[in-house]
Design goal:
556 residues; elongated; single chain; Rossmann fold; 8-stranded mixed sheet; 6-stranded mixed sheet; 15 helices; 27% helix; alpha/beta
């Protein structure tokens, strides 16, 4: 089923070209070079124009933070299917441009978790014990013990802002230091974590009065930008210490300096900055109560090896159609489907292709109704596959599973997935396409602007269409198919059959269903019909509508 794979050709017969556009650890380069189905092009340090010229020659690209993957770079993406960031942040990749071009963007968030957490903890220890200014004094020949009296971590309360992988890793280490830990994460719906040892707060500002030290582990977005500022500093404990090894801009730097000068903030450990490197005249660089490092969170030998290899593994996994890990612009897309999920995903592709020719007046809303417990986790993938098959023949711009939601949204096409995991009614799939208010033609009754198709997989694992627009039937959607809607009166089957016969087109299978005063014939023919056959069918008295579609041959 080509709608799911990154490359429609057989991976066994295709050599993938992988561009390393940034300096990667040698282990990552060696891994790429060792793959039998890949060629490595190692070109770090290219300018924007140089990268734009060659990016379309490659199937996958791996970057770190040193190169900017802009809309200009992706203007003509050619073969490019996937970009992997060897690291966590993807601030240097234009996600909107990549998504619009159907390019999957992924990161390797898990690979450098420990290194980043350890660095945040090192900043916390260094800040509490004044290691930065004490070292500077020693380097200048001074011995001033009393000036650098610090504070121990044992017994202090650490507030972890963002309780994902890194935040939890920091919390584990804090608990080992006999610290009290509280946390805030809007996407964790629990009162406590870690068997009750970490109290969760529902709002960021709720955590502030309880923390002696705040450590940030959140992404940069509209909700987190400047979240620690003059107003929220006022809610903190007097002398609160702050650590930011997440993203620059999460803490308002001007407000941070004012809080330090007023004593509201007892000091800060900063590894990330809104602009990197920060200006040479930045007050953060030389402030005695600010411990700064040049974005070293993931800068360990182990982390750089891990993220480089992980990025390469994820790129090959996607290109080979084996799965998706670390995607940041593909929602709940999966390719690691179970056999029954893959069968239903293929069925969604066929069903959507079958009714696509019936859509002649636009689309207002698409509903994918997934029924059955086993299909629930694959619903997002099934939705994207159906949308691609519905839209591809109606749009001039290319549509694939990565950009289809973006394309639909940009055109005002709403899509929704309804999941019913109750198996009592049996597993089945329903696709409904609702047209705009004036989308009524001679195929539907007045006021009816919905196209509906229902399918299921039976015990023989063969796909079936069991309903089209209220017409019940049982047909395997494969090969060359023709749909004919006609008046329900004697002679119509014979008239249609004679027309096919005169055109020397053999009917291999036929399903007929009656509804109200009309009938629907779904025919499977042995080969593609000559173009004038359909004009002749439409000229037959009583035939209301004719459409044809070429589906993939049956795979089971």
């Amino acid at each position: 089923m080509t709608a799911l794979t990154a490359e429609p050709t057989n991976p066994a017969t295709r050599m993938f070209s992988i561009l390393a556009a940034d300096k990667l650890a040698q282990e990552g380069l060696d891994f790429i070079a060792s793959q039998d189905d890949a060629t490595l092009v190692n070109k770090p340090g290219l300018s924007e124009d140089e990268l734009a010229q060659i990016v379309g020659e490659h199937d996958g690209m791996i970057v770190r933070s040193g190169v900017q993957v802009t809309a200009k770079v992706l203007e003509n993406p050619g073969r490019l299917k996937v970009i992997a960031r060897a690291g966590v942040g993807v601030d240097n990749i234009d996600l909107d441009a990549a998504t619009a071009k159907g390019i999957l963007v992924m990161n390797t968030a898990a690979a450098n978790t420990i290194s980043t957490a350890e660095h945040a903890f090192a900043l916390m220890i260094g800040l509490a014990r004044n290691l930065g200014p004490a070292y500077r004094a020693m380097a200048e020949g001074r011995w001033d013990r009393s000036t650098f009296t610090g504070r121990q971590l044992c017994g202090k309360t650490l507030g972890v802002v963002g309780f994902g992988r890194i935040g939890q890793c920091v919390a584990e280490r804090a608990l080992a230091f006999d610290m009290n830990v509280v946390a805030y994460d809007p996407f964790i719906n629990a009162d406590t974590m870690f068997d009750g040892r970490v109290k969760m707060y529902p709002e960021f500002e709720d955590i502030l009065p309880h923390a002696d030290i705040l450590t940030f582990h959140v992404p940069m977005n509209d909700q987190t930008r400047g979240m620690l500022n003059a107003r929220t500093f006022a809610k903190c404990r007097k002398g609160v210490m702050v650590v930011n090894a997440a993203r620059g801009g999460v803490i308002d730097e001007d407000d941070l300096l004012e809080a330090i000068e007023s004593g509201q903030c007892g000091g800060a450990g900063i590894d990330v900055y809104p602009t990197e490197p920060p200006p040479e005249d930045s007050k953060l660089r030389n402030h005695p109560r600010v411990l700064t490092t040049p974005h070293l969170g993931a800068s360990t030998v182990e982390a750089q090896q891990a993220v480089s290899v992980s990025a390469a593994e994820q790129v090959f996994q996607y290109l080979r159609g084996e799965g998706i890990t670390g995607a940041v612009n593909a929602g709940n897309l999966r390719v690691d489907l179970s056999p029954i999920q893959a069968s239903y995903n293929d069925l969604a592709h066929r069903m959507a292709q079958l009714i696509s020719p019936m859509i002649t007046r636009g689309i207002e809303c698409v509903t994918i109704d997934v029924r059955g417990d086993e299909l629930a986790s694959a619903a997002g993938t099934i939705e994207r596959t159906a949308l691609v098959s519905l839209l591809n023949d109606h749009l001039s711009d290319p549509v694939n599973i990565i950009n289809v939601k973006n394309v639909a949204d940009s055109r005002g096409i709403r899509s929704r997935t309804a999941i019913d995991d109750d198996d009592k009614a049996g597993t089945q799939l329903i696709i409904e396409v609702q047209g705009p208010p004036d989308a009524v033609d001679d195929q539907t009754q007045p006021g009816d602007r919905t196209r509906r198709i229902v399918g299921r997989i039976y015990d023989d694992l063969r796909p079936r269409v069991i309903e089209i627009n209220g017409y019940s039937m049982d047909m395997i959607p494969a090969g060359h198919m023709v749909l004919i809607q006609n008046d329900d009166r004697p002679g119509m089957i014979g008239a249609a059959g004679n027309t096919f016969g005169e055109a020397q087109v053999n009917i291999a299978d036929m399903a007929i269903s009656r509804r109200r005063e009309t009938a629907l014939m779904l025919l499977k023919i042995d080969a593609e019909a000559p173009g004038d056959l359909f004009d002749k069918l439409r000229a037959v008295a009583g035939i209301r509508k004719v459409c044809a579609v070429k589906l993939a041959d049956e795979t089971v």
